[in-house]
Write a structure and sequence with these properties.
Strand content: under 5%
Order of helices and strands: HHHH
Structural class: mainly alpha
Length: about 90
């Protein structure tokens, strides 16, 4: 039981990010693509923040490269996605 508990704790950051991505997909499927894109950017930023604050042993598969690279890349990409989602005018409005 100890091994399965450790495995579950190791995957909690990934599960949290995956749940936010699932919410983004639901929004996109509900034809709320701007909100979905914004939430997806938030999921990427959440992954970057979790990578930043958690130890390498706690972050699980969110650790791909060095901590500096992972955090910088995820926060940058998430911020760009969120900025694009906010800056694009909704279709069909004048």
């Amino acid at each position: 039981m100890d091994r399965s508990l450790r495995l579950a704790r190791l995957n909690l950051p990934l599960v949290a990010v995956t749940l936010v991505i699932a919410a983004a997909v639901i929004l996109v499927l509900a034809d709320r693509w701007r909100r979905g894109a914004f939430v997806f950017g938030g999921a990427v930023m959440l992954a970057g923040i979790l990578r930043w604050i958690l130890d390498p042993g706690q972050v699980g598969v969110l650790a791909v490269r060095s901590k500096t690279f992972d955090v910088g890349a995820m926060l940058t990409v998430g911020g760009v996605i969120m900025a694009l989602a906010v800056s694009i005018d909704p279709l069909g409005t004048g």
